[in-house]
Amino acid sequence: MPPEKLSMANDTNSRLQKFQHLLQYFGLTVVLIGIWQGLYHLGFLNPILLPAPSQIALAFWDLFKSGDLMRHIGISVLRVLEGFGIAAVLGLVLGTAIGLSRTLDRWTDLIIQVVKPIPPIAWIPLAILWFGIGEQSKVYIIFLGAFFPIIINTIDGIRQTDHKFVEVARILAVPRFKFVRQVVLPGALPAIMTGLRVGLMVAWMCVVAAELIAAGSGIGYLIMDARQLSQSDVVIVGMITIGIIGKLMDSLIKRLEIRLIRWKVAFSGN
Amino acid sequence: MSATAASNLTIENLNKCYKVAGGDVDALQGINLDIHEGEFVSIVGSSGCGKSTLLRIISGLENGYSGEVKIGGKRIGGPGLDRGMVFQEHRLIPWLTVEQNVAFGLNGMDNSQRDTVVREHLELVELAGFAKALPHQLSGGMSQRVAIARALVNNPQLLLLDEPFGALDAMTRIQMQQEILRIWEAERTTMVLVTHDIDEAIFLGDRVVIMSSRPGTVKKIVPVHLPRPRDRSSYEFVQIRKEIFSEFFAYVERPFAYAI
Lengths: 270, 260
Prior knowledge:
- The complex is a heterodimer of chains A (270) and B (260).
- Chain A has a single domain (61-267), classed as MetI-like (MetI-like fold).
- Chain A has eleven helices and no strands.
- Chain A has helices at 8-41, 53-66, 68-100, 102-115, 124-131, 135-159, 163-171, 176-213, 219-228, 232-260, 262-267.
- Chain B has 260 residues and is of the alpha/beta class.
- Chain B is built from seven helices and ten strands.
- In chain B, helix 5 (170-187) links the parallel strand 7 (158-162) and strand 8.
- Classes of the chains: A mainly alpha (270), B alpha/beta (260).
- Chains A and B meet through helix 7, helix 8 and helix 11 of A and strand 6 of B.
């Protein structure tokens, strides 16, 4: 808790500190872009291989103006939401069930452990054979990518239930359903949120990978298409867009996490 | 306590041994103890004497013992609502509010009835104003009071206290001892307190059970026939303390003169 009465000196101090933090947050990125632009002006860069930031900005603006960029982003994000949505529902339900039941865990553990390390990209050939190059194959790849982090973290979170609370519940003869709802699930929430965050990141990487290989739209397609036309500036626009959207998704889910797990934020202090 | 009172808790020839890598370790050996209804019994012993194990067996959390543990003549089989327990750590669930934590043990009640019971118990531990607070907003003593309210909410016949004030600072501990005494006098619940604090044991107990270590046995039972509230510095209190001390430590003769 900050003290109620801040003096004027303190106020300017904290404003200065805020500015300092902003500088630290953006500084390195700005400097690197500056150096990159400088190298271009000094003639060190071949614009076909690595265009200057100014050229990339122009390409970005053109794509944005024509509406192409937003269209591709929209398609990719939609695919992610579909695949991630299915993975989240199945991962949470199955993860909870497996976390609560040792028997179910023994039944499913081997298959989960063996399928988990197969990279979603390795599924692309089969996915194309099964579903063609339409939406379904992409959604399937994204689902596979997001599903495992979500289910594994959910199981772990449930298993981490504090044994001390189990004893309290036994002493008080708390029914199992109530115990799961009031203790196990809220306690697993931090791990579940981690699973969802990782799952969303993997889903976003999977959509781009799937689109790079077989698609007629989406950010990955934009990059592949530009490569064939040797438009390296558009390739980099696509890459940067992927990065920025990934970061935004992560921030969004982090904010959700803070809202949901307020007790923990307060618990872990400043 | 009159002689005709029903014997509430009976422990007969209780043995418990743990399997440790090297072999068996006797945690408890030949424990016999009768605790009457409404009695306050303190159990003291050095750490590792099995006093907490004894309490956990009574609570039903611990199995695999030989001998008999009966409540009202019936053998216990696992935990039951006739016994409440307060642990050394408060064990409040961090994401539930104080009232939700107290209501955690209340099952099969309609909402208004539950709210009434919770309110009564928060009033009993003098925390009525903190119903909506989360555990991390409470001090150690307050958290332990909530834990006591939670343990009493089903009106158990027997309240088991496993070093409940051990983690509190000295001031709060004394406050909490007075508090538990007030609750005991109000509720007349049978209480069994495990502690390593000899003063606490004498201040609270009708009897003080002294346990020895490895194997854990009942070494001696010291009755405390002093009116409550007890004065910790009264002659009788100090005499009882000396008697219990001598069970644990060799008596050291104070030399008459000190050399400087």
